[in-house]
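Attaching the record inline, Q. Sequence:
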Amino acid sequence: MSAQTKTMPPGPKWPAPIATLGWWTRPNPLVRRMRDRYGETFSFPILHEGRWVFISDPEDIKTVFTAPAKAAHAGEANAILKPILGRNSVLLLDEAPHLRQRKLLLPPLHGERMQSYGELMTQIAQDEIDSWPAGEPMRLWPRMQAITLEVIMRAVFGIRDAARLEELRGMLAQILHWTSSAQQMLLLTVFGPEKATEAPHVKRALAPIDAVLIDEIRRRRGEPDLEEREDILSMLVQARHEDGSPMSDTELRDELMTLLVAGHETTATALSWAGERLVRHPDKLERLRAEVEAGNEDYLDAVVKETLRIRPVLPIVLRLLKEPMTLGGYELQAGTYVAPSIYLVHHREDIYPEPDRFMPERFLEKPAGTYTWFPFGGGIRRCLGAAFALFEMKAVLRALVSSVELRAVEPQNELTTRRVIVHTPARGASVVVRRLVRSDSGERESVAAAA
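Structure, as predicted:
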């Protein structure tokens, strides 16, 4: 049988439970090893889902991303998140239901409405940065989590009351810790999404946050100034389906949970990686500070793009084929899971020379390609919050380099560790902070808190 008529690429013959454990514990080294051994297209056994087919050729990536919605399902492929996000999450819908929900969610996350959150994001970041201890080691990752959570509570949920903010802050942090546990996600993988949705311990864990979200939705519906409010929840409460009906409380709950889980953890992790990379490249950090002070945005944009290239928060995009598709010379059958590998494509030497080096300048010389840089996925399933996340990252980094100097606690690069579906710095992006002050002549100086 020729390669052109084969229906499954080569890959290890490991038992699915062992292979799945390897995927969950050491995904990046694992896919590099598989790629080196089997080539750009290989298969890998995953519990409950047969053999995933990993691809890393940009032409194959293009084939998947430009396929009709009916040919490859992203929602069905990500069903493992159903117990947490809910059945109505835009991430878990396909074809017409996905497009209907996407139309409702898109406006608040793009354009002028998104831009209106810039001042709020900057103030939230500045308040957090001002609280950081100077001259002693600290982890950036939980600090960035605090920033992104505050942005969600105030820009997405639109909470204004201080007491209510404090109440929600603790509860949301608690549930996010639970949903972000690798152990919990491994259990969901073992049980499968349908059984996990009905599991008593999952229902108990989610009950408090469900009650809070539904309560907040119902409160918002009754606000007299609803039409004047600019937060995302208020806009979604007023949004209407094509038949004129509003989203139900359950729909809104699921979309808020999606924005909370997807928007909080991913952006905080990307910001942490930006800090981790910059402190190990002081020349890049100093250039970023100088460019920001001069009001130039190009290098800031390049730093964000290079961070998401070299340390993508998510390792893959996943699709479930509903029709046959030819990829890498293999005629894959309907029912096959296809995994465009963000990590492998972002580390292709023919596209990114010296791919393991942090070089933001590469994006000043050549723009990011649609099928060679896709940290937010691609095609009609590109992350709805991509523009919002990039906007938020730039606002936070701008405030960061304008306020403090950072240095690494240890010279070694931080390894990657998995936290559910995101890949975070293993030591939490540990840094030491020194505050920037201005001398009488206007020159910058850095001082510790005690100075």
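The chain has a mean pLDDT of 90. The two ends are 74 Å apart (CA to CA).

More tomorrow.
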